[in-house]
């Protein structure tokens, strides 16, 4: 069969979300890269985000009263698959809370046609492939690691009846055992990647919803872009070092420029950079600024940046933020995580001296860039007093905004293993209900609900302190969402 007659569908599962939270949704870069490579090789490719296509549909889960599933119904998915008649279906799974619906998609595929070859991949699969294949008979194969090119390699071999077991990262069954080709599929030259297949995604609906990774966007047409992969840090709560490696790999600037030019043709006005730490390579960042500035984009760093990169040279550090601002950057997110040096050093292995943080926050704000802090509380063994110290430290720093999350033990990370082996996980812990707003770690003296309420009160405390300092600036950022929340609006009215 010729490649153009082989139909491959890449599908993203329904979203699991908080009933009262922001339902963030954006095109999956991973599936767009895979789609771009399949298209480049001549296959008929279909990309489908079931959460997007059924965004208005919300159903209550049996996991927790506050959790809803957002996305297309089974019948809609069946109709879609019957229409396109795929030979292969790949489902991408970033987090464990997508597993339930991933399983359902695979069941549906086999109900429609048992001959459909089903494949799963993504961050969660990379660390838990054996568990996933053992518990779902409807999955034929899994792929671990960077699948952008390897997925197409597998389709090349399997569709022609050749030896697919040699494809790096492929996981398959042999009798009652699960075999994996652990050969590295890490892409060292990111210039070999295709451009993401945005033409196969329903971009207009994403823009209509306008709730990307950073839901407080400055422009109605946003695109998420990656310029580097990998992070030199080894934080124990994060999967990045294991999935993407500790070497920062940079896309060629001309490759990035090509993508940005394509986005201008879509009418995109804002870029949200998904790099794990875009400031790690100073030279690359400055080149990016030179490219993006004349294009007129506004942009931000949604995944956060390491606070102390280049901070020893204060002049260079300030110049970096000044240059970013000149090039259109309106916000950086700083990965502070905690205001306790003990937690940084002994629990999460984050190489950061808290004494440096005020200077960096000041540098960001002096440049004219809005400063957002990422904070986490509830690390295993962390006391309430230590958590309160984080809140007070953040208030003293005086950023423009903060987000306070509960520590989420992500399967496959060192801190998940530590939490599990030392009895820190809550008694009803389940991988498929992990959310950053729900408590999964035992806190002495508090039930899960009581601890969640305490953290909610700290969040309000932080937001109120920020609002009091500059009500106008605060409302400019959060106004759209405050209008949907009466309590938030009242806080604003009280202090403005």
What brief labels describe this structure?
single chain, Rossmann fold, 2 domains, pyruvate-formate lyase- activating enzyme, alpha/beta, 18% strand, seven-stranded mixed β-sheet
What does this entry show, briefly?
The chain is of the alpha/beta class and 496 residues long. It contains 18 helices and 18 strands.
Number of domains: 2
CATH-assigned homologous superfamily of the largest domain:
tm_1862 like domain
Number of strands: 18
Mean pLDDT score, rounded? 92
Task: Tell me the fraction of residues in β-strands, as a range.
Answer: 15-25%
Low-pLDDT regions:
484-493
CATH topology type of the largest domain = pyruvate-formate lyase- activating enzyme
Task: Report the major sheet.
Answer: 7 strands, mixed
Q: Taking strands numbered 1, 2, ... along the chain, how are they ordered across the largest sheet?
A: 3-1-6-7-8-9-10
Helix content: 25-40%
CATH architecture of the largest domain: Alpha-Beta Horseshoe
Structural class: alpha/beta
Radius of gyration: 23 Å
Tally the helices: what do you get? Answer: 18
User: So what's the CATH class of the largest domain?
Assistant: Alpha Beta
Tell me the distance between the termini: 67 Å
The best one-word shape is globular
């Amino acid at each position: 069969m010729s490649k153009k007659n082989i139909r491959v569908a890449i599908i993203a599962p329904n979203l699991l979300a908080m009933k009262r939270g922001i339902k963030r949704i954006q095109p999956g870069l991973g599936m767009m890269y895979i789609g771009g490579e399949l298209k480049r090789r001549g296959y008929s490719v279909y990309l489908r985000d079931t959460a997007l296509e059924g965004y208005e549909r919300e159903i209550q889960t049996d996991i927790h009263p506050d959790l809803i599933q957002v996305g297309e119904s089974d019948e809609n998915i069946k109709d879609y698959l019957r229409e396109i008649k795929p030979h292969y279906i790949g489902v991408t799974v970033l987090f464990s809370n997508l597993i339930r619906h991933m399983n359902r998609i695979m069941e549906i595929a086999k109900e429609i046609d048992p001959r459909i070859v089903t494949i799963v991949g993504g961050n969660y699969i990379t660390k838990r492939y054996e568990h996933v294949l053992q518990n779902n008979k409807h999955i034929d194969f899994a792929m671990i690691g960077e699948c952008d090119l390897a997925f197409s390699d597998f389709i090349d071999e399997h569709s022609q009846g050749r030896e697919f077991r040699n494809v790096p990262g492929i996981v398959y069954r042999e009798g009652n055992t699960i075999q994996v080709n652990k050969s590295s599929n890490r892409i060292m030259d990111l210039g070999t990647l295709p451009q993401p297949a945005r033409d196969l995604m329903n971009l207009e609906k994403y823009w209509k919803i306008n709730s990307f990774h950073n839901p407080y966007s400055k422009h109605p047409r946003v695109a998420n872009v990656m310029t580097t992969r990998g992070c030199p840090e080894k934080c124990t709560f994060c999967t990045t070092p294991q999935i993407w490696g500790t070497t920062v790999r940079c896309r060629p600037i001309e490759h990035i420029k090509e993508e940005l030019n394509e986005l201008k043709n879509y009418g995109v006005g804002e870029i949200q950079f998904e790099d794990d730490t875009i400031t790690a390579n100073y030279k690359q960042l400055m080149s990016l600024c030179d490219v993006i500035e004349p294009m007129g984009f506004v942009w931000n760093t949604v995944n956060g940046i390491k606070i102390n990169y280049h901070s020893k040279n204060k002049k260079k550090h300030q110049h970096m933020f000044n240059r970013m601002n000149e090039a259109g950057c309106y916000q950086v997110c700083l990965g502070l995580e905690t205001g306790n040096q003990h937690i940084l050093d002994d629990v999460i292995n984050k190489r950061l001296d808290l004494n440096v943080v005020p200077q960096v926050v000041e540098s960001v704000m002096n440049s004219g860039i809005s400063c957002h802090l990422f904070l986490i509380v509830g690390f295993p063994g962390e006391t309430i007093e230590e958590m309160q110290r984080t809140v007070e430290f953040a208030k003293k720093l005086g950023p423009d905004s903060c987000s306070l999350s509960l520590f989420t033990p992500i399967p496959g990370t060192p801190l998940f293993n530590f939490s599990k082996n030392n009895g820190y996980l809550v008694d009803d812990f389940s991988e498929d209900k992990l959310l950053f707003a729900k408590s999964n770690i035992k806190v002495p003296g508090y039930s899960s609900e009581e601890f969640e309420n305490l953290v909610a009160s700290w969040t309000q405390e932080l937001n109120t302190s920020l609002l009091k300092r500059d009500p106008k600036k605060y409302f400019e950022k959060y106004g759209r969402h405050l209008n949907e929340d009466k309590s938030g609006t009242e806080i604003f009215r009280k202090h403005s």
